[in-house]
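hey so i finally got around to running the thing on that chain from the lab meeting. sorry it took forever, my laptop kept dying and i had to restart like 3 times. anyway pasting the input first so we r on the same page abt which one it is
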Amino acid sequence: MSISPAYSKNIVIPNSAIDENGHVNNVTYVQWMQDIAVEHYASIGGVEAQGPDATWVVREHRIEYLLPAFENEEIEIKTWVENIRRVRSLRKYEFIRKSDGKVLVKGETDWVFVDVKTGSPLAIPKEVVDIFNFSEEVP
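ok and heres what got predicted. didnt touch it at all, straight out
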């Protein structure tokens, strides 16, 4: 069960996303995952809540490619925060083709909250947890 409502946006796949096999390049999905995560976090006030001395870094990306996507197709990219732990948070993603509603790609990113100066993990502050509408204690 996710702890945040899904955030989504629609895009039309540009030619620049297409690889030599004629479909969206695998690496492009990773870029889109990062882009929508940053956009979602900014839209709910995350940058302000975390303050200038902390940031998020990626520990791991996992992606499952189910179906190819092609130039000029419209897709919906969805993301949500699945959980928040002491210093980490799991964010999930889905890429859905608008014309038929099929899920093309599923992914997740394990993010770690860190001190900007040292790079050491930091406990995620209550102010950051609260922006995700999470009402339980963080384990």
